[in-house]
Every structure is written in C-alpha cells, then in structure tokens.
Amino acid sequence: MTNRIQTTKYTLLSFIPRNLFEQFHRTANLYFLLIVVLNWVPLVEAFQKEITMLPLVVVLSIIAIKDGVEDYRRYKFDKQINNRTTKVYDK
C-alpha cells in the first residue's frame, strides 16, 4: 500500500475514448453530431458533408487539447507532490 496521490483523469491509452465519451454527454455536441449524421442522408442533405463536420471537429479538438493540457498539469503536480521527502518525528 502506498500513499501516492493521483488526480489525473486519463492515461495515454484511455485519453481519446474517454474524452469523446465525456464530450458527447454534452447536449450541444450531440446536436451537432445529429446534424452531421443527418447531412449524410441524401434526402436531407442541406450543405456539403465536410462543411457540416467542421464545427464539430473544431470544437471537439479544442476541448480535447484543453483537457489534455489540464490533465498533464495535474500529472506533473502529482509527480511533484509524490516525490517530496518528509520528516517523521517519533518520540
């Protein structure tokens, strides 16, 4: 058993799937995903397929970069805290 602190949310392998899972729990992202999916149906197609995907991809990318940077800062701070030396006073 260790006294190690870990506040990070992601690992290298779980970053993309977990981040996408969390982002699609937001109503706005689900709405844009629905618009993208509907635009791939030829009867409903209003714009070019690539143009409707652009806002969703940009938003998902920006949020993923922000979450990745934030989690990396947490990782560095956890590493700093876990590597501190402590003095124990025993009577």
From TrEMBL:
One of its GO terms (cellular component) is plasma membrane. Coiled coil: none annotated. Keywords: Membrane, Transmembrane, Transmembrane helix. Residues 2-52 form the P-type ATPase N-terminal domain. InterPro entries: ATPase_P-typ_TM_dom_sf, P-type_ATPase_N. This is P-type ATPase N-terminal domain-containing protein. GO terms for biological process: phospholipid translocation. One of its GO terms (molecular function) is ATPase-coupled intramembrane lipid transporter activity. It comes from the Eukaryota. The chain crosses the membrane at residues 28-47, 53-69. It comes from Scyliorhinus torazame.
